[in-house]
Amino acid sequence: MNMTFYKYQGTGNDFVIVDNRLQTINKNDTKRIARLCHRRFGIGADGYILLENDDNTDFKMVYYNADGNESTMCGNGGRCIVAFANFLGIIKNETTFVAIDGLHKAKIENGMVYLQMQDVSEIKSFDNHQFLDTGSPHHVEMVSGLANFEVKANGSKIRYGQPYNKEGSNVNFVEQLSDDNFAVRTYERGVEDETLSCGTGVTAVALAMHKSGKTKSENISLKTEGGELNVTFNSNDKGYKNIWLVGPAEQVFKGEIKW
């Protein structure tokens, strides 16, 4: 059978998205999903996303890493599927949908997609890094000379090393540009390489920089290799709430491929 797909990208983080409301896709075929994401033998993408029906919300998001395995939350993927749902006419400018980490609110304003992330109550601080979960696990580490930093080599060592081991963590390297502006480069598990942007990653960086006192702002700009994202939040002694990831999401093309 032929599968109709759409290619979306959000600050260079790219996804194959499929309308699976009729449940025509075999979601257990991890090898085929990985091949679709392969940049030489398939369409090429950082992840694969299915849009499905949900009884209690506008739609359900099912996300797979480029290795073909269903994974934890993807922030840029979440923003892209909101744009896709708007394109399909499922939603207008506001929505509530469900993903693997729970309910998400989102809205589209002036061409930007706003995605509300889950509250974060715990950020673990260590000598040279911080660790937190923003829907996906993230290691956050400040470095100097980020533009020339060996992200893949250093990220893979951390991702597979103690205490993360096989389950792994995404790894974010950060350089401060100004009080409320940070440059970020991310090594993503499941892709096993640097991606041009990571939504849950920049969210983790924004919260970690605030927690560590690097910034007092609750509206932070994050410069990634693929573009700029913003993260806003409210903080108190119990953690971080009302967290929003903001940035562009656009359809690149539509196509058909043998499934």
C-alpha termini separation: 6 Å
Number of strands: 17
Number of helices: 4
What spatial form do the alpha-carbon principal axes imply? Answer: globular
Low-confidence stretches: none
Structural class category = alpha+beta
The portion of residues assigned to helices is: 10-25%
Question: How would you explain this protein's 3D organization?
Answer:
- By secondary structure, this protein is α+β, with helices and mostly antiparallel strands.
- 17% of the residues lie in helices and 44% in strands.
- The protein has 4 helices and 17 strands.
- The termini are close together.
- The model has no long low-confidence stretch (mean pLDDT 97).
Entry summary:
The chain is of the alpha+beta class and 259 residues long. It has helices at residues 30-37, 75-88, 151-160, 199-211; strands at 2-10, 13-19, 47-52, 60-65, 94-99, 102-109, 112-116, 124-125, 130-133, 137-142, 170-178, 181-188, 193-195, 219-224, 227-236, 239-248, 250-258.
